[in-house]
Amino acid sequence: MKTTTIPRPPRVGLVSLGCPKNLVDSERIMTKLRSDGYDMSADYAGADVVLVNTCGFLDSAKEESLSAIGEAIAENGRVVVTGCMGKEAEVIRERFPQVLAITGAHQYEQVVEAVHEAAPPAASPFTDLVPESGLKLTPRHFSYLKISEGCNHRCAFCIIPQLRGDLASRRPDAILREAEKLIAAGTRELLVISQDTSAYGLDLKHARYTWKGREVRAHMTDLARELGLLGAWVRLHYVYPYPHVDSVIPLMAEGLVLPYLDIPFQHASPRVLRAMKRPANEAKVLQRLRAWRAEVPDMAIRSSFVVGFPGETEEDFRYLLGWLEEAQLDRVGAFRFEPVEGASANALPDQVPEEVKTERYERLMELSARISATKLAAKVGKTIDVIVDAVDVESGGATGRSKADAPEIDGEVLLRDAGHLEPGDIVSVIVEDADDHDLYGALTAPAQAVPERSIAG
């Protein structure tokens, strides 16, 4: 009879110093590590890695922390340092250059990632309560991938910085490791999200990290390229049109990143943009859109706009409509301005009446539907790739999305004679018809089966 050997989980030793707040931090780290399948070790000898949670409040506490680090290195040799003294990493490195990683206080994710790096968890379907890719609320074949928290912008209508703080980027190696696990578990489309994807890594000063034996900057371009190399569709959301976004366009031309950008323009009138405390360079943006489309003709650009912002005149709104006529955005969403508690826009004069907001909203959506219908009609007769989201076996139909469509916010591709497909299949489709927002088509080739994937070492 064949037996299965269950791998021994790696063990972590923990030294927790300082105040009760540090103790709570240690408890949180332990809880996360235990949920990841780690065992805790009561001594140095039995640990695969030792975590030292330091205190740095007083000089005497710093000396105690340095002494604890030295003891852990002498007794075990594989040490990760966290806690308050992490902000003095150069002091620790100078005395103990062999320390594996140093993180600051409250940096729970970075601590756990450092432990994962030092002693990779032994994933086992026989003992793990949670799959290695984590629990998901989306279908198996697509996943949202958050690359940062917070935002450095101070838009007049938004309170995100008050709720989530300033930009706090994740390390690129941590993001790529998560993406790799998701793909191994069946994800075929990664949707990159943050409050400002273009600003990714700015707070980390675009530092370089090691991934698969090579250096990767904490920068939007490097991250997009590395994600593209993992083999799934990569879709970029919430991209501000900073100059360095130009360097992402070649990745689309190469097929590493989907030819799709979600750019939150919000408005086009320079006067309204200034009132919103947003960049007012709409003319230059139009030039760049033309350049991007010249390099990647099938690029899809979606955006969202606010109508009825305080002080918006009929002239401002007509300027926006004219800009949209020239920009020819593929997907457009709009929102009537609503006061948000704590937002500075609430105090602005010349609030726009609700009936005017509604009338302008309807005009904008009518224009965007007309532009969309024209652009989609031009796709009739062409062959496109479609990722399948749902299959109706009884009717024999299926619903999917093209590379120009993000789930739930954009259009769909409705397929006939496709009841044999499975969600996550990527198929070649001939477009037979179109309406204002959706395409209709049929398969031109057999479905590509979802490949068996494993995490590369």
TrEMBL record:
The cross-references to PROSITE patterns, in alphabetical order and at most eight, read: MTTASE_N, MTTASE_RADICAL, RADICAL_SAM, TRAM
Q: Taking every annotated instance into account, which residue ranges of this chain make up the domain MTTase N-terminal?
A: 10-120
The record's PANTHER family line, in alphabetical order, gives: RIBOSOMAL PROTEIN S12 METHYLTHIOTRANSFERASE RIMO, RIBOSOMAL PROTEIN US12 METHYLTHIOTRANSFERASE RIMO
Keyword terms: 4Fe-4S, Cytoplasm, Iron, Iron-sulfur, Metal-binding, Ribonucleoprotein, Ribosomal protein, S-adenosyl-L-methionine, Transferase
Known EC number(s)?
2.8.4.4
Question: Binding of [4Fe-4S] cluster 2: at which residues?
Answer: C151, C155, C158
**Cofactor detail note:** Binds 2 [4Fe-4S] clusters. One cluster is coordinated with 3 cysteines and an exchangeable S-adenosyl-L-methionine.
Q: What does the record give as the reaction this protein catalyses? A: L-aspartate(89)-[ribosomal protein uS12]-hydrogen + (sulfur carrier)-SH + AH2 + 2 S-adenosyl-L-methionine = 3-methylsulfanyl-L-aspartate(89)-[ribosomal protein uS12]-hydrogen + (sulfur carrier)-H + 5'-deoxyadenosine + L-methionine + A + S-adenosyl-L-homocysteine + 2 H(+)
Stated family: Belongs to the methylthiotransferase family. RimO subfamily.
The coding gene here is rimO
* Source organism per UniProt: Sphingomonas sinipercae
Query: In which broad location class does this protein mainly occur, judging by the first location in its UniProt entry?
Result: cytoplasm
Identify this protein by name.
Ribosomal protein uS12 methylthiotransferase RimO
Q: Kindly list the biological process annotations in GO that this record carries.
A: tRNA modification
